[in-house]
Amino acid sequence: MSTRYNHREVEPKWRARWAASAIDRALAPEEAKGKKKAYVLEMFPYPSGRIHVGHSRNYTMGDVIARFRRSNGYNVLHPMGWDAFGLPAENAAMERGIHPKGWTYDNIAAMREQLKLLGLAIDWSRELATCDATYYKHQQAMFVAFWKKGLVYRKKQKVNWDPVDNTVLANEQVVDGKGWRSGAPVETRELEQWMFKVTAYAEDLLAAIEKLTKWPDKVRLMQSNWIGKSQGAKIWWDIESAPAFLPASPAGEPNHARDPIEVYTTRPDTLFGASFLALAPDHPLTKAIAAHNPEVAKFIEQCAHLGTSEADIEKAPKFGVDLGVRVRHPFDPNWILPVWGANFVLSTYGTGAIFGSPAGDQRDLDFANKYNLPFKPVVLPPGADAATYAVTDEAFADDGVIYNSKFLDGLGTRDAITRAIDELVKLEKGEATTQWRLRDWGVSRQRYWGCPIPAIHCATCGVVPVPEKDLPVALPEDVTFDKDKPGNPLDRHPTWKHVKCPSCAGDAQRETDTLDTFVDSSWYFARFTDPNNPDAPFDKKLAGYWLPVDQYVGGVEHAVLHLLYARFFTRAMRDCGFLDGVADGEPFASLFTQGMVVHETYKSAAGAWLLPEDTDIKDGKRIELNTGAPVDVGAIEKMSKSKKNVVDLDAFVNDFGADVARWFVLSDSPPERDVEWTASGVKGAWNFVQRVWSLTDAHGHPAPKPGEPAPAMEPEAHALRQLAHRAIQSVTDDIENFRFNVAVARCYELVNAIAKLKSEDGGSLFARGEALRILAQLISPFMPHLAEECWEKLGFLGFVATAPWPEADPALAARTSVTLPIQVNGKKRAEIEAPKGAAQADVEKMALEHPLVAQFLEGQTVRKVIVVTDRIVNIVAN
RNA sequence: GCGAGCGUGGCGAAACCGGUAGACGCAGCGGACUUAAAAUCCGUUCGCCGCAAGGCGGUGCGGGUUCAACUCCCGCCGCUCGCACCA
Fold first, then answer.
1. In this structure, is the CB of residue A745 within 7 Å of any atom belonging to strand B?
2. Does the interface ipTM go beyond 0.85?
3. What pLDDT, on a 0 to 100 scale, did the predictor assign at position A1?
4. 3-class SS letters over A273-317
5. What one-character-per-residue DSSP string does A673-718 give?
6. Three-state secondary structure call for residue A191
7. Would the Cβ of A518 be found within 7 angstroms of any atom in strand B?
8. pLDDT in tens, A792-813
């Protein structure tokens, strides 16, 4: 009789043994002696509080890869750290009067202990937190270096301003155009901000995507669209008339007053369909007119309440105002068009001015219809008739044939664009140009809990960097977070910002903005290669040895920004002399984006969110555990603290064990897709753990060593050996390709087959022992504790975690015959068993002779027989 | 609004390059063991028709390409993610 597997004893025992043997420590390059390196990294967490099972999926996936690589003889670097600056710490400070630092470090301590429960093969000696001055000191040094290299500058940027709280709001703090705390309508304000010149690398960031072949295509496409290189034309529209109050232009400053208005377009072929010009609300000309025209001022004011997020601006109903300016069409000086201000024109893209060609752009068409602006179609869709084709509510934005357009008539869209640009150049009214959607990265945040920007404002010397010897510029800890004293605590700190200018020694002030937390996460992967270096961000040799990250694992929500910023930072670090050995500037050689863990949401009758553990199922209905009241079962959503649909990791590990949690999040759903956390799924994982253990325990013999010669055996035992060796092939391949759910299914098949072989003869004992050994090894990346316990039970010394990965015997894994389906006219009618690789003629003969097939072919003529070797036979007959 | 992705039994899913749709798990049903329950074991499970052999239908919806379509193409519907100050 077998003993029950007790995870409460087994799991801590093995974690202690691994720690005592330091098996998770990455070897220094000189220790690694010919081993290849593998740097496996999961996106590091924000220390929000406690870990729930939803978080565990990301780390478990990385851990499977890390353990798999180690078994395959690699020197593995698998570190963990904390993305520890950010808004939630300040919110906690304001709501509960806890200092962000204490709150953050308490959370880190709690989460570290929880993560350790999972049995992750992490080199904890490399742990870092971005809020440590030992970390951000180097970030400040790099900021200064980037500055000196011309990659940092200052520029006015729009921000969301809460007029009641007197503070800048993040986009997520703006709800329906109002501040989330004050409820006051947000205003748009312009602030002088620090910028990183990401656009300096635009061409390279785009071109290099092609070489990132181990990234998901969807992420590559999103990056590429985000960078958004477009070819088009700048067009200058001469002003025909303007309100009298507009002054003459200052010399040499474009887009002022009476200068021609510069417009960017990708579709100069539709110029003859132009109906109006539209300027962004913050276009210089719009602002200049607003100073004298109350109606335009009101328009700008209305736009200022839309928020700064692109989604909000584009979703808002379109509105505008006639600016009273008239321009001449570049191809026809007698054609006069009105100039409008419009809320859907983005000042951050192109020149902040467009020409509206309503028949070819839905936004322009909606706008023209709303304000009764005339328009006519100039692009004829393929197959449409010029005499009858008309546009009313639906624009045609695709390629077609140009008409109603004088010298462009009859040309296709592509040719017409070239022809139109040629004409613009000839008339000196425009030129071809390349435009990027990518903008420079604004890194200033008016917040306390972030990395201070190492700059000093001096009335005499201007803005000067903090000298390297004075770094780090440390955050002061004696700050207050009273709700009635809004704004940035750094700014109102009594002494912190007052310093002497490093160049003239006069009175000066520190920059009180801190850095966007995306900066912290743009280089942490490099710091992990040399995390305790006091003098430099990292040693160039160590970073050169470990980088790039061989496998990066994280959520799709980071597909654009974090990854783009890290790619930028790696290039900037290279070009500023911090980093060698990453010549192409790419930090992540291979990327995997995993799906989330989702769970049903529960609400009480009173409308309060309920934790799953506070509910139960009675008579098929979900009720509140304490009161028995019925529970409202809501949507299945991403596990989040706010909706309480979380399962706490500690409690779960205590009840079921870390291995069950690890196995569950990897079974069933493909890793890139979301997985729903369910009690029944947990049960399946739990049963499997028990089954693996009871089979191993019941075997009662030491298992044969890898490569040990097999005795003669019955066909059933031989079949088990074949299946076990095929499982090695499949699981190896599945892990390599991130098909963890399929690997899990193969392990189930192996267990089922082991359980089926009941004989106790020598051959069977050998086959079963070998299969159990292979099973323990195959599950070891997934369920490391159970695997160690089985490994020990089977009589092996040392850790399964460090044992070499099993190798399949090709002779056993190979198949000698295959089952071929036979179709008649595409429908399966029979099956035949044929030798693997059998000649097509032989297979065809067998197929046609099959009685069922013959029956179907009666009275019909065989027209064609398709034989796909080892796959299928299809007989076409009528 | 723009960009990207996803959609297969009662449920999670598998199906590698266009070649047997539903591997594997959960749940269900039938049975064995048991005083009983749990656990375990055996069998069974896409729908419809049929005693059966077998047949017909079936991968969100509508078309198309092909000897053959979950897979490729066109058009819809639904859901999810990102949109630059959440991380």
1. yes
2. yes
3. 42
4. HCCEEEECCCCHHHHHHHCCCHHHHHHHHHHHCCCCCHHHHHHCC
5. S-EE--HHHHHHHHHHHHHHHHHHHHH-SPPPPTTPPPPP--HHHH
6. strand
7. yes
8. 999 999 999 999 999 999 999 9
User: For residue A358, which amino acid is it?
Assistant: P
Q: What is the pLDDT of residue A386?
A: 86
A827 CB less than 7 Å from any atom of strand B? yes
What pLDDT is stored for residue A852 in this prediction?
85
Q: Residues A60-92: pLDDT tens digits?
A: 999 999 999 999 999 999 999 999 999 999 988
pLDDT at A320: 95
Q: Is A169 helix (H, G, I), strand (E, B) or coil?
A: strand
Residue pair A712/A803 in contact (Cβ under 8 Å)? The answer is: no
CA A450 to C1' B87, whole Å: 13
Model confidence pTM above 0.90:
yes
pLDDT digits (tens, 9 = 90+) for A394-453: 888 888 899 999 999 999 998 999 999 999 999 999 999 999 999 999 999 999 999 999
Please check whether strand B approaches the CB of A854 to within 7 Å.
no
Query: d(Cα A772, Cα A488) in Å, to the nearest integer?
Result: 62
Which residues in window 538-567 of A are less than 7 A from strand B by Cβ? 556-562
End-to-end alpha carbon distance in chain A: 63
User: Which has more confidence, A683 or A130?
Assistant: A130
Mean pLDDT value of segment A659-685 = 87
Mean pLDDT, chain A, integer:
91
Q: Say if residues A873 and A821 touch (Cβ distance below 8 Å).
A: yes
What is the Cα–Cα distance from A478 to A489, expressed in whole angstroms?
Answer: 9
What DSSP line would sit under A513-551, residue for residue?
-EE-HHHHTTSHHHHTTSTT-SSSSS-HHHHHHHPSBSE
Strand B bases contacted by the protein (CB, 7 Å): 1-6, 12-15, 19-21, 23-27, 39-42, 54-57, 67-69, 80-87
Whether the beta carbon of A840 falls within 7 A of nucleic chain B: the reply is no
pLDDT for A52 equals 82
For every residue of A415-469, DSSP letters joined together read HHHHHHHHHHHHTTSEEEEEEES---EE-EE--SSSEEP-EEEETTTEEEEPPGG
Q: Which nucleotide is nearest to A436 (CA to C1')?
A: B84
Through-space separation of residue A756 CA and nucleotide B30 C1' in angstroms: 21
The whole-number pLDDT of residue A627 equals 80
Rounded CA separation A314/A597 (Å)? 31
**Among the listed residues A822, A815, A814, the one whose alpha carbon sits nearest the alpha carbon of residue A871:** A822
The confidence score (pLDDT) of residue A608 equals 77
How far apart, in whole angstroms, are the C-alpha atoms of residue A17 and residue A139? 37
Q: Beta strands A401-402 and A187-196: pairing type?
A: unpaired
Q: For residue A321, is pLDDT > 90?
A: yes
Q: Which two three-digit tokens encode residue A604?
A: 């009480």
